[in-house]
Amino acid sequence: KNQVEQSPQSLIILEGKNCTLQCNYTVSPFSNLRWYKQDTGRGPVSLTIMTFSENTKSNGRYTATLDADTKQSSLHITASQLSDSASYICVVTRNTGKLIFGQGTTLQVKP
Amino acid sequence: GAGVSQTPSNKVTEKGKYVELRCDPISGHTALYWYRQSLGQGPEFLIYFQGTGAADDSGLPNDRFFAVRPEGSVSTLKIQRTERGDSAVYLCASSLSGDLGPLHFGNGTRLTVT
Predict the structure, then answer these.
(1) Measured between CB atoms, which of B4, B42, B107 is closest to A104?
(2) For A10, which residue in chain B has the nearest alpha carbon?
(3) Residues with Cβ < 8 Å from B49, sequence gap 6 or more?
(4) Which of A8, A9, B63, B113 reaches 20 to 30 Å from A86, CA-CA?
(5) Residue ranges of E strands in A3-103
(6) Per-residue pLDDT, A80
(7) Is the pLDDT of residue A105 over 60?
(8) Among A31, A43, A98, whose Cβ lies nearest the Cβ of B105?
(9) Would you call A41 and B107 a contact, using CB atoms and an 8 Å cutoff?
(10) Cβ pair A91, A36 in contact under 8 A
(11) pLDDT by residue (tens digit) across A36-48?
(12) Rounded to the nearest 5°, which phi and psi values hold at B74?
């Protein structure tokens, strides 16, 4: 079954600290993997997109990694800010174009 | 507006009624997706259009759900005989080509079936 699983389900960190979110998938055949940030009441906003051949991609304080062999991805947030509080969703695209979403990790950054 | 626009932003309807949800994608985007998101959950795929045709409608839960995109731009998601379990936020997203391009999401339509 094509699935995307994220961990942890929720996370609380102090402002300025780093954190890493995990995404494991069983989707096949694989086309690309995306990380999204979703603020409450808003649609998801793209952070990174990685294809099979890419191992890492950065977008400001966000760095995503991908291990296509183990089918694992991580999103590392550096020097967290209060505005980073949101849900982070991992999305895997099959080569048919269908996107499969993870349940998301809810991050809360406290002052 | 340069973004994906969804209307209405909120819709309250009675069980058994028919509803239509509209999505205006970014101009020139050929790929359009519909998702629904329940509270605390990630979006659940419903249907994917490439141009005017539904490339993948495997996410539509049953035959009460139908979506069209007659001219390859605006799309309408139609729900017949609504049930309370249909209550969710319905999200629309578009992308330029449907593969590697970033998805641009609307803010969704919150549907409440009473």
Answers:
(1) B42
(2) B40
(3) B31, B32, B33, B55, B67, B69, B72, B75
(4) B113
(5) 4-7, 10-14, 19-25, 30-38, 45-51, 56-59, 62-67, 72-77, 86-94, 99-101
(6) 97
(7) yes
(8) A43
(9) yes
(10) yes
(11) 998 887 778 889 9
(12) -60, 140
As a residue count, chain B comes to 114
**Residue (of B67, B93, B91) closest to B79 by Cα position:** B67
Cβ within 8 Å of A, B 69-88: none
> Is residue A30 within 8 Å of A68, Cβ to Cβ?
yes
Map tokens 């009675």 to a residue: B14
Question: What pLDDT score does B36 carry?
Answer: 93
Residue A53: partners with Cβ closer than 8 Å, 6 or more residues away: none
Cβ-Cβ contacts under 8 Å for A47 (sequence gap 6 or more): A34, A35, A36, A37, A59, A62, A64, A75, A88
Encode burial over B16-43: b for 16+ CB neighbours within 10 A, e otherwise.
eeebebebbbbeebbbbbbbbbeeeebb
